[in-house]
Every structure is written in C-alpha cells, then in structure tokens.
Amino acid sequence: MTQGKRERVLVTGGAGYVGHVLVPRLLSDGYEVVVYDSMFFGNRIEPAPGLTLIEADIRDTARFKAALDGVDSVLHLACISNDPSFELDEGLSTSINYDCFEPLVVAAKTAGVKRFVYCSSSSVYGVSNAPEVTEDHALVPLTLYNKYKGMCEPLLWKHQAPGFTCVTIRPATLCGYSPRCRLDLTVNILTNHAVNRGKITVFGGLQKRPNLHIEDMVDAYLLMLRAPAEKISGETFNIGYENYTVMEIAEMVKKVVEQEIPNRPNIDIERTETNDNRSYHINSDKIFRVLGFRPKRSIEDAVRDLCRAFAAGKLPNSMDDESYFNVRTIKTRNAA
Ligand SMILES: NC(=O)c1ccc[n+]([C@@H]2O[C@H](COP(=O)([O-])OP(=O)(O)OC[C@H]3O[C@@H](n4cnc5c(N)ncnc54)[C@H](O)[C@@H]3O)[C@@H](O)[C@H]2O)c1
To answer: Residue 278 pLDDT more than 80?
Structure first.
C-alpha cells in the first residue's frame, strides 16, 4: 500500500470462516479493518492495532451507518451461508441475506464509501450441462440460498456510479484451514472423516464441484480492493480453480491423508447413492483475462493444511463440536 493515510476496510461477516483468514491478511497488508459481525460462531480474531471489532447485526442499518465512519471500502460477506442453514428459518434468513442488502449498499454510498465488493456464490448457476459456465450463463438457482444470493446482484448495480465502484464475485466452494473452521464444506468434510474415522463416504461421486483454496479467496479480496476501478466497476467475476468430481476429490483426500497422518495408512472410500446430483463446471478465465488472477493453491494443499491443523490439535472434537457445522450451530441458536 502507498504511504500516507491507511485505507479503512469494513468487512461484514468478518468473524466467519473466510474472515478469520482475511482479516489478519488485511491488517498485515497495512489496512485498517472494521469487522462488523453478529458473531454467530464466536470470534477468535485477536485484538490488533488498526482493528475494530463491532458485534452487531447487518439488519441494524443505524448501527451499520455509524460503523462506516472513515471507511473507504466494504467487503460484504455476512449471511446465512449455506443451503441447509438458510432453510432452518426462511423468514429470518431472507431478512439477513436479502432484505437488508440494498439498505447496506445505500448506507455505504451515502457515507462516501468508494468501493463495495459483494460476495455472491458460484452456486447461483444451479445445475448446468454447459461445459464451461461463464459469468453470462443464466442463473437457475436450485435453493433459496442460491436464489437470494443471485437476487442481490442487480440491487447492487442500481447504485453503481462514478466514485462508487461496485463489484460482484462468485466464488467456488472453499476449502482449507481457518481458525474458525467450517467442516461442512466438501473437501473439509472428506478430510475430517478421513483423518478421524479412517473412512470417507461419497454420495454419488460423479458430480463436478468447483473448489477454491481459502488463501486464494483472500488473495482475490485483496485484488478487488486494489484493482483499478475502471477494470471492475459493474463487473462480475467467477473465482474457482479446480473442477473435479467428488470421487476424484475423495481420491486426493485419501492420498494426502495417508501421507500426512501416520495412524491412517489405509483410508476406505465407500460410495452410496444420492439424489443430490448437482454438478457444475465454472469457468474463471475472466478474472485472469481482466486482472491477471490465477489461484495458486491446490485442493491437495488445502487437505495438507487441514491434516497439519488436526495433528497440531487445532481442530479438537471435530466430529461432534457443533461450531464446525453452520447448520447445527444455527439450529441450536434458533431454538434458544
Ligand atoms: N465458504 C464457502 O465455500 C463459500 C463459497 C462461496 C461463497 N461464499 C460466501 O462467502 C461469504 C463468507 O462465507 P463463510 O464461509 O466465511 O461463512 P460463515 O458462515 O463462516 O461466516 C458468515 C459470517 O456472517 C455473520 N453473520 C450472519 N448473519 C449476520 C447478521 N445478520 N449480521 C451480521 N453478521 C452476520 C456470521 O456471524 C458469520 O461470522 C458468504 O457470503 C458466503 O455466502 C462462501
């Protein structure tokens, strides 16, 4: 970053799985950071110079406006972030993932924020037979989570203006270690089961699922903050790396876990039928063409990082502790 005033970035959902890797990187890259999060899953981000932690709800627009003082850019990650958790309480989830979205954008624009990065999802495309799903592919959402993720996008474009750069990213399913780890994501689930049960169950197996290492996701956020406005204003970018079938991913997990974990020399892969045959192949050439971005870490790297975290005792009680599984945590929270 250039000398002078430090750029101030507000991250909604900054205490989540991605936030716990993103926020320390932003701080070490010289940004001031405001984490704005209701802390559904607690918070393990250490206090640090330049960091402000605000425990608040994105639906509280007054509180959000107050948090925007001096903020240059907003990275909007907060949401109920997968299909089953969304469906636990559709009304509540819609209020978080959709109803408050436009008020957040308007508040940011009014406060003089210069850049708004919206994190959508590559799941907005639903199932497609297209060999390469590019950003102009129709959105055919299969779940409410996908549907509302996609419906926020045009709301953002309404407010795109000179001096208020709006950009949407559609990341693939993430993988890898975070201090607030999610073990409900494909690669992370398979690795947890391989390490802790010595066995992986694959449902179906032929479905293609695009993946992205969490550290590459963080690189992409940093890029969105630095990229020249004229290259990203009003643009949507897929961000994925490796499109493999679930069975291929299971084979990779097996190989890496057998190498990394001494008491797991022989992981079993069991295949069962599924009715969830969602399969898609996203194409991420645009972000390379426009911004020169290519992910650098593989699925195997993510599995290796997780194995090392397990071996170091950083993921205790990983089959049972509900904080690793969004749906279980939110179910308990809603019942309380
Ligand atoms: N993890 C993935 O594989 C993946 C893939 C594509 C897109 N994304 C998107 O990336 C973003 C981050 O995902 P994640 O995996 O870190 O999710 P996460 O569930 O770990 O984090 C979401 C955060 O949002 C916060 N939050 C939820 N409702 C809130 C509210 N009403 N007010 C304030 N904060 C609230 C939660 O407390 C949590 O810390 C999400 O927008 C998600 O849809 C994730």
So the answer is: no
